[in-house]
Amino acid sequence: MAVGVIEGAGVIVVGVLNTVAAVIFAAALCWRLEQIRREGGGLQSVAMTVAIAALTLAYVVSGDDVTAAIDSVTFVGAARVLFYALLAVGVAALIVVFFFPGRSTTRERRAGIEAVPLVVALIGLQITMLVIPTDLRTEGLSVWTARNIAYALFVLIASAYLTYGFVACVRSIRQFLRLAEGYLRTSLGLLLGGLVMLTAGTVLQIVFVVGSSTRSWHVRWLLDVSAVLSVIGVVLFLIGISYPMLRARWHTISSRRRHRRDVEALAPLWQLVTDAVPEVVLPVGGTPAPTMTLHRRVVEIRDALTQLSPYLTDDFGVVDEAARAEMLWAAVEEYQVSGRPRGAVRELVPGGPDLAADADPLLRLSAAVARLETG
């Protein structure tokens, strides 16, 4: 009874893992398609999309209902062939994605080279499945099934190709890790750990099949360890492949929140200078995003300060923020009384390399203006 409970729990864990994996791969596929739509894509980008799509479909095909449906309209065992074929295509695409270009081999050339072992593996899977007795085609790997030569060859072809692909990816990722920094290094490290675990799992599966088919050894725990390593490998691989997507999403959300706060923080300064120089306010169309609103506010404030610059002395650039706020108040009052001056205008706040650098000095000045208003 305890064994039955453990096996049932194992089936549930595998089912949950497959469902989570399918959802993550589907989300990653949508993200990749959106990236290609926005930025375009070369061979590497297309290969990553193909890899994610193939792995997503592989997890879909592994479902019991889908497997039964495919076998009913084709032949018994077709779903298993399709599952491993999709895994093989996905791994082949990953080889192209992670390929580290050398002096004599380009990514395009490597893609052409990888087509040869992939086609050989796919043909081998199809032929061996047709030779396997019908009653064994849907059975799981065990000592009994591995003693059938056709079944053993099918598993060996699938495992050997996956091992080859995983090893090729590991070698390439190790080279990229030497150059990677930041979040990309984290992502590659997780992918590397996952692929190493998956490689170990497929190697143990090969050892089990060889031993069982030749009756040289019968070590059941090899399959158990292989399954555990595969689960850990899939989890690490999923985290690694989704990490850039999740980071990009988090960066977008946090940027929007920060920019929304910055827009609110710039309100005192923006209100002060645009009341005096309303012509700098840009026309509004629709509801702009927080980042666009912040950019508009920065441009409008900088333009207004430029118009007010003749009423501000050179000391404006060296005094503290409180003194700047007082000088700006006086300049606004004088501008409203005297109108646009005839003197030359100048840039009061130097620009930065990005929006955050442009907004930073204005945020400090706006805080000083707000304190002056409340004081």
Automatic annotation (TrEMBL):
The keyword Transmembrane applies. The chain crosses the membrane at residues 12-31, 43-61, 81-100, 112-132, 144-167, 188-209, 221-246. It comes from the Bacteria. It holds the Pfam family DUF6545. Residues 257-368 form the DUF6545 domain. Keywords: Membrane, Transmembrane, Transmembrane helix. This is MAB_1171c family putative transporter.
